[in-house]
Amino acid sequence: AAALKWLCQTPRPSVRALILDTHWQTPTRQLDDEYGVDWGALDALFVALPNLELLYVLGHLRLKKPVKHATLKHLSIVTKDLDTALLTTLAKSKLPALTSLGLCTGGEEHADDDDAVVALFAGKGLAGVTDVEVGGVFDPVAVVEACAGRGLDSLVVVDGTVSVLHT
After folding, report:
1. pLDDT in tens, 84-114
2. Half-sphere exposure (CA, 13 Å, Cβ side) for 82?
3. Which residues, 6 or more positions from 152, have their beta carbon under 8 angstroms from its beta carbon?
4. Of the four, 11, 31, 89, 151, which is 20 to 30 A from 112 by CA?
5. In this structure, are residues 88 and 64 in contact, taking their beta carbons and an 8 Å threshold?
């Protein structure tokens, strides 16, 4: 978080790709509640990096308000807390260049609310997204249906268990 804060102190128009990850910890450890990596609020990042095209984040993160960014094309978030607040804020964001969105909970965690994941893809926001990868939802079929309703025809990958109950 200190490195990210330092990075965002000055506008950096030359930065086009950013990977927030640590090479000394496994993904499981980075998502741990006690020892994990907490990047904090990412809001300043989108202001400081006006030409950012690719962002990959592994760890705990927050968005205080909807993001407005003109050039971001690829966004991947791997976090233990794929919570309703994060998903709702992302759904309200203005990301006209975004074509690829990856959302995943780490380990055996699931999103707090599948309805927020479905709403993200069923809504009118993020209209340019054509590639979707989602992991860690209880109902992968609902997410696929939401993506199909948008007319996504490039790539849709949803990881989850499909259960059929016979009565």
Report:
1. 889 999 999 999 999 999 998 876 666 666 7
2. 28
3. 129, 130, 131, 132
4. 151
5. no
